[in-house]
Amino acid sequence: MADKFEFARQHKLFSLYTALVVLILAVAIFAPYLAPQDPMAGNMKNVLQTPSAEHLLGTDKLGRDTLSRIIAGTQVSLFMTICLVVLIAAVGSLVGIVSGYFGGKIETVLMRFADMMLAFPGVVLAIAIAGILGGSVVNTILALLTVSWAKYARLVRSLVIKLRHSDFVLAAQVNGTRTKDILRRHILPNVLPMVVITGAMDIGTMMMEIAGLSFLGFGAQPPTPEWGLMLNEGRQYIQTAPWLMMYPGTAIFIVVAVFNLWGDSLRDLLDPRHDNTNR
Fold first, then answer.
1. Nearest to 137 by CA among 23, 251, 197, 222
2. Under 8 Å CB-to-CB from 33, ≥6 apart: which residues?
């Protein structure tokens, strides 16, 4: 316990942001119990009510409680974002490890394909793919996965190329260690910290892109309580019921800011190229 307090004292910002991240995750996990009302249940008698004691953040066009939908949206938005980041990191890391370790024609083909994906405007291509596949949570994740894995592939490839010529990898090859064991024991553990750092810093970006696709109608579909979709539903009432856009937008801003700050502090903590003495 003393070690934990000492770590928190030495890394104040990281500890603070981690506590905020844990709080957001707790809200997402326990959203069904924290929401004061059913986020799906409408009541036409309560349509577009202003914030009050009964509905702290007002109601929407179907009389649904805005606060309950924002709390439920934490679970939906965060689940989509985390799934997307994990998939992007996994696919990009696999491509990067294969191309960086084996080289040759495999590397040429994979990296030229990655360059082609990086050459396209990512959001525009994601909108096109989501439009072809149709609007849904799964299709949004697939569309953003298709356009976002290349950055991880190039990052991991550059790390693997350096590791491939290191003494401990060459010694393992001389000793007859199987390729899969070299990749599992020597390559993957050394690239994983940078992948984790990059993934943590991308959570906010991916959440914004998911919300953007949902706002445009290519993501989550009604009646799913997703923040981007809530912004889309509230935009036509911006003058008469501004809380329908203000509160979901604030939720996106807060969560994205927290994860961006947490990702920066995690980078400073794990990346040896950064000084983390007062983090």
1. 222
2. none
Is the distance from CB of 126 to CB of 213 less than 8 angstroms?
yes
Give 32-67 pLDDT, tens digit per residue: 999 999 999 888 888 889 998 888 999 999 999 999
Is residue 164 a contact partner of residue 191, using CB atoms and an 8 Å limit? no
Any bridge partners for residue 59, and if so which?
A: 65
Q: Quick one: average pLDDT of 130-136?
A: 87
Of 152 and 276, more confident:
152
How far is the CA of 57 from the CAs of 3, 23, 27, 77, 232, in angstroms?
Answer: 42, 20, 17, 19, 17
Identity at 197, one-letter amino acid code: I
Residue type, 103: G
In the structure encoding, which two tokens stand for residue 13, read together? 């910002």
| CA–CA distance, 172 with 194 (Å, rounded to integer) | 23
Sign for the pseudo-dihedral over CA of 8, 11, 16, 22: negative
65, β-bridge pairs: 59
Helices in the chain by DSSP H: which ranges? Answer: 2-10, 12-29, 31-34, 66-102, 104-119, 122-133, 137-164, 167-174, 179-182, 188-215, 227-234, 243-270
- Contact in structure between 234 and 248 (CB atoms under 8 Å): yes
Query: Helix 188-215 to helix 66-102 angle, to the nearest 10 degrees?
Result: 140
What is the chain's mean pLDDT, rounded?
88
Q: What is the pLDDT of residues 219-242, one digit of tens each?
A: 888 888 999 999 999 998 888 889
